[in-house]
Specification:
The structure holds two protein chains of two kinds. Chain A is an alpha/beta fold. Helix content of chain A is 32%, strand content 29%. By secondary structure, chain B is mostly helical. The longest helix of chain B has 30 residues. The chains are: A alpha/beta, B mainly alpha. Chains A and B meet through strand 6 and helix 2 of A and helix 1, helix 4 and helix 5 of B.
C-alpha cells in the first residue's frame, strides 16, 4: 500500500529522519512509538502530504510519488495530527458538513453515520467550542470516517483524555480496524498500543530501531523462566529451551505451556516459579533508551 | 468547484453574525444618510465599507486558520492547496459582487435621482480592479505573516494610509504616473483619461497576478 525507501528529512542542520525504510500493508494496525523528538510526527506528516521537502522514495499504491504528485497524497490518506481543530462557532454536524462539502463527499446520511460511529450523534447540534477534548478527538475521527478513506493516521489520539474517553477512542479504533481500515497510530501510551496494534515500529533519533510483528509475537511466542532442583537431568526434547544457572528459558506458544510443564514432570524436575518473560512494549522502549 | 465553494462557505457564514450585520449596514446606510439629510452623499462611503471589509477578510482568514490550527484540518482535506487558495480568492470576488449589488440597490432606492445605471457599471468595474489588487495583496501578506493582527494592520496601513499619503505627496513628482500603487485611489480613475485608466488597470491587474502567483507557490510549499 505504502512504501518508503531511504527517506531522510532535515530541518535546518538537524537531521530528523535518517534512512527510513518502511512498508505498510493493507489492513495493518501499526503502533508508532519513540521518545519525544524521535521523528514520529515528522514521519506522519510526510505520509499525509504535509512535509514536501524530504529526500528518498515514496511509493503509494505502487506508484512513485514525485514532487508534483506529493500534494495529492492526502487523497489516499487521512490524518488526525494532534488535537483536531474545527470552526468553534459551528456545531459538530455543521463542521463535518463543511469539510465533507469541501471534499465533495457530503450526504446527510454519511455525516450522521460518521457521527453515530464515534458516539457523537446526540451531541451533533452542540457547538464545537463546547466539546470536551475527548469529543474533539472523536469528531476528528468522524471527519476522517466521513471522507471514506482506507488509510488513517492518528498522532497522539489519547493525549489528555480521561480513562473513559481513552477507552471510547480505543473501541472506535478497534471497530475501524475490524472494518478493514489500515491505521497508523503514534502514542506514548504503550498499554493502549499493545492491545490494539498488529505491528509496532520503534523510532529512535530519527531511525527505525525495531519493526516488530506484534500480533504474531503476542500469540505465537512466550518466554518462561523456571527454577530447577535437578537441572542436570533436563532434556529439552521437542522444545526450544536453554538452561543457565538453574533457570530454563523456553520460547513456546501460550497453549504449549501445560505440555512443557508436563514434560518437566515426566523428567522429575521440580519447578518453583514460572515467569512470563515476554517482552512488552515498555521493555522495547526501555531497551531503546539505554 | 464554484457550487462546492458556495455550499461549503454558506455552512460557515450562515452562523456568522458579522456577515448579517455587514449586509444590514449596506442596506440601511443610504436611508440613514437620507434621513440625516446629508445631500452630498455619493457612493464613496458604501465602496469604502465594501473594500475595507473585503480587505480585512482577505488579510485575516488564512492567518486565523493558522492560529487556530484549522489550516491543518483543511490541508488534510480532499482539496489541493492551490484549489483552496483560489477558492478563497474567488470567494472574495463573489463577496464583492454580492456587496455591490446589495449596496447599490439600496443606494438606487434611497437616491434614485442621482444614481444612474451607467455610473453603476463604471464604478463596479473600477472598484472590481481595485478590490482584485487589494485582495491579492492582502492574501499575499496574510501568508507572509500567518498572524492575524500583523497581517491586518500591515494591509490597512499600506493600502488605506500609506497609499493615500503617497498620492498626496507623489503628485509633485514625474514618476508618479508610473507607479501602480498610486492608482489605487479611486478618484484618480474618474479624472484620468482613457489611456491613463487603461495603464493603471493593466498595472494593478499585473501586480495582482504577480502577488497571486507568489502566494500560491508559497501556500503550496508551506509547512503547517
Amino acid at each position: 500500500m505504502i512504501e518508503l525507501k531511504n527517506i531522510n528529512k532535515v530541518f535546518g542542520e538537524k537531521k530528523v529522519l535518517t534512512n527510513i525504510d518502511l512498508s505498510i500493508r493493507e489492513g495493518e494496525f501499526i503502533g508508532l512509538i519513540g521518545a519525544n523528538g524521535a521523528g514520529k510526527s515528522t514521519l506522519m506528516k510526510i505520509l499525509v502530504g504535509l512535509l514536501p521537502n524530504y529526500s528518498g522514495d515514496f511509493y503509494l499504491q505502487n506508484q512513485k510519488i514525485t514532487k508534483k504528485t506529493y500534494m495529492n497524497v492526502f487523497l489516499h490518506t487521512k490524518a488526525l495530527i494532534e488535537t483536531p481543530q474545527f470552526f468553534p462557532h459551528l456545531t459538530g454536524y455543521e463542521n463535518i458538513k463543511y469539510f465533507t462539502k469541501l471534499d465533495g463527499t457530503f450526504s446527510k446520511h454519511t455525516v450522521l453515520d460518521a457521527l453515530d460511529f464515534v458516539n457523537l450523534y446526540d451531541a451533533k447540534d452542540q457547538l464545537f467550542r463546547q466539546y470536551s477534548l475527548g469529543m474533539k478527538q472523536r469528531l476528528g475521527i468522524a471527519r476522517i470516517f466521513a471522507s471514506e478513506c482506507n488509510f488513517m493516521i492518528l498522532d497522539e489520539p489519547f493525549n489528555g483524555l480521561d480513562p473513559l474517553a481513552k477507552e471510547e477512542i480505543k473501541n472506535i479504533l478497534k471497530k475501524l480496524h475490524q472494518e478493514g481500515k489500515t491505521i497508523l497510530v503514534s502514542s506514548h501510551l504503550l498499554d493502549e498500543l499493545e492491545t490494539l496494534s498488529t505491528r509496532i515500529i520503534y523510532l529512535e533519533q530519527g531511525a527505525i530501531l525495531h519493526d516488530i510483528e506484534w500480533h504474531q509475537q503476542q500469540t505465537s511466542t512466550f518466554e518462561i523462566s523456571v527454577d530447577l532442583v535437578n537441572s542436570q537431568h533436563f532434556q529439552p526434547g521437542q522444545f526450544k529451551a536453554t538452561i543457565e544457572n538453574h533457570i530454563i528459558t523456553v520460547t513456546i506458544e501460550r497453549q504449549q505451556l501445560p505440555t512443557f510443564l508436563q514434560h518437566l514432570n515426566v523428567q522429575n524436575i521440580t519447578f518453583y516459579e514460572v515467569v512470563n518473560c515476554t517482552k512488552n512494549l515498555m521493555k522495547y522502549f526501555a531497551q531503546g533508551r539505554e | 468547484m464554484l457550487v462546492k465553494l458556495i455550499q461549503s462557505e454558506w455552512v460557515k457564514y450562515q452562523r456568522n453574525l458579522y456577515f448579517y450585520m455587514y449586509f444590514l449596514l449596506l442596506l440601511l446606510l443610504p436611508f440613514l444618510l437620507r434621513i440625516l439629510n446629508i445631500q452630498t452623499f455619493d457612493e464613496t462611503l458604501t465602496m469604502i465599507i465594501i473594500t475595507l471589509t473585503i480587505t480585512v477578510v482577505a488579510a485575516t482568514e488564512i492567518p486565523r486558520y493558522c492560529e487556530t490550527g484549522i489550516i491543518r484540518t483543511i490541508t488534510l482535506s480532499n482539496i489541493s492547496r492551490r484549489s483552496f487558495y483560489f477558492s478563497r480568492f474567488i470567494k472574495y470576488i463573489l463577496f464583492y459582487i454580492l456587496s455591490f449589488v446589495v449596496g447599490f440597490t439600496s443606494l438606487a432606492i434611497a437616491f434614485s435621482n442621482t444614481i444612474t445605471f451607467t455610473n453603476c457599471i463604471k464604478i463596479f468595474f473600477i472598484y472590481l480592479v481595485i478590490n482584485f489588487f487589494y485582495v491579492t495583496f492582502s492574501q499575499f501578506l496574510s501568508l507572509l505573516y500567518k498572524r492575524t493582527v500583523e497581517s491586518l494592520m500591515t494591509s490597512i496601513l499600506l493600502l488605506f494610509v500609506i497609499v493615500p499619503l503617497c498620492n498626496v505627496i507623489g503628485k509633485k513628482y514625474s514618476f508618479y504616473s508610473w507607479l501602480p500603487l498610486l492608482y489605487t485611489e479611486p478618484k484618480n480613475f474618474f479624472v484620468l483619461n482613457l489611456g491613463e485608466i487603461g495603464y493603471g488597470i493593466v498595472l494593478l491587474i499585473s501586480c495582482g497576478l504577480l502577488f497571486q502567483t507568489l502566494a500560491v507557490r508559497k501556500f503550496s510549499n508551506d509547512h503547517f
